[in-house]
Description:
The chain is of the alpha+beta class. It has four domains: 22-233, P-loop containing nucleotide triphosphate hydrolases (Rossmann fold, 3-Layer(aba) Sandwich); 246-325, Beta Barrel (Elongation Factor Tu (Ef-tu), domain 3), CATH 2.40.30.10; 331-436, Translation factors (Elongation Factor Tu (Ef-tu), domain 3), CATH 2.40.30.10; 447-554, Rossmann fold (3-Layer(aba) Sandwich), CATH 3.40.50. The protein contains 14 helices and 27 strands. The strands form five sheets. Strands 7, 8, 9, 11, 12, 13, 15 and 16 form an eight-stranded antiparallel sheet that branches. Strands 2-3-1-4-5-6 form a six-stranded mixed sheet, with helices on both faces. Strands 17-21-19-18-22-23 form a six-stranded antiparallel β-barrel. Strand 4 (133-139), helix 6 (146-157) and strand 5 form a beta-alpha-beta unit. The radius of gyration is 32 Å and the shape is elongated.
Amino acid sequence: MAAEVVCDSPLAGESACPTWVVSTAQTELLRFTTAGSVDDGKSTLIGRLLYDSKGVYEDQLASVRKATRNLTTDGLDLSLLTDGLRAEREQGITIDVAYRYFATPKRKFIIADTPGHEQYTRNMATGASTANLAIILIDARYGVLPQSRRHAYIATLLGIPRLVVTINKMDLTEYREDVFTAIRDEFTAFAAQLGTRDYCFIPISALKGDNVVQPSQRMRWYSGPTLLEHLESVPIARDHNLTDMRFPVQYVIRPDLDFRGFAGQVASGVIRRGDAVTVLPSGRTSRVKSIVTWDGDLEEAFAPMSVTVCLEDEIDISRGDLLAHAANLPHSGRRFESTLVWMNEKPLEPHRPYLLKQTTQMVQARVREIRHRVDINTLGHQRAGQLLLNEIGVVSVEAQRPVFFDAYRKNRATGGFILIDPITNETLGAGMIIGPDTWRPSGPVTPAERLARIGHRPYVVRLANTDQETARRIERHLFDQGYLVHLIEQPEHLAQAVRTAFAAGLVSLLRGTAAEDAGAFEAGVPAGQLLTLDRLQFEDDAALFHALLATLASGAAGNIPLTDGAGI
Length: 568
């Protein structure tokens, strides 16, 4: 049975227990995931880790012994410690992601046992999304299989900084060094294609316990650490990005008139009292007045701490906004390129509307284009019109309003997102942002793109009998209402000036002689977008302006959809 801390003595409650609690709270936490092909022994390996590190209770062991059916396990099938679903135990496979927790004096661990079947690739991606390390299991009898490559690729794709390749079932190959060496060389060649540098190889037998917790006496040719020794010693302090401060606002705390704080988790970087910060998307700047927690104010907070930040200035900030240092801002844009793991039975099709959740904000978005699909076995690129369940591709995404992001390899917190079905609320895909979408198809900017960007149709407005001061006031009022407007008074080439402004999508105001020479440009302007207003027909300038504004609004674009072109 696992050790249990009991405080019996009168002094224990004041000294022993607090010391143990403090030391436990300060022990480093390592999250890791296991992955590999079917029947490579992932669940057995985790069961062996839990069993040999004394992380299993007696009632759990009794339940496992009662459920054991595999005669090769000497009456204790350790895989059943994690394979909890009935279907998993009946079939001897992992289906869902199982999380297990254990600790040693050196470190605490959270394990994500993920399935090996190709049809459950999405489950593997879910379990790996927060891991510091991935254990890739390879059956020593079969070598590197396609599913082993798939999981290594996904682990690298999800930004897991280090891999441990464990060659399992060495007992079935008589613990031969040449088997281990051949698999090591094959995987090393594949890892070079992935660009992975931090990886190591450990020969083990999860069933017999060789090199899992205790060193193997049957593989004396291996001089490296056991799996547990490696897990306890691998450095993870630098896994968090402590350079780029990103603080997504999750909730605004306003208990009374004297307090206004912005609660959230520091996604990356360090935020300190007195720091100058920029609020996105407004661009307003302020300084950090205080960093508030339940235990009192802090001088600084760093990822992944959850705190409440108060600013010196009253700024309109809501959920989904982002605080960042003014000298180190994230990318801001509506379009970006991303690697996408598709996780739904309904295929991904370009131009369908989705909800995009990134940090604490939710925006409407759609996939504009599938650049290519990735062949997991060769890492080659294939042309594709859609992505099916468990397929991975590189896509161009366009959001309805700007999002604030970093490349996923630089910052997992602000570089990751999910796509959600707006009707069923299902999670459809998980994306890793590569960077801003700078690639554009060739071709001219279309009128539809200009319409979507500007938000209103172009017009030519002839202001008859209107003086210069009135015309300029109308130009100012229209500009303040959000129209791109330009007053044309005495151009050298009237027809060319009007047609150019019209093609650019502007509202052109003509007065004086320019308003009277209609024949010079009527042929290039549709009748519905050529307006004539006579100042003498209106009571005052305000009436003229409101009549013009009503006419423009009746033909304006209203809610502009996302563009069909590539000019944004």
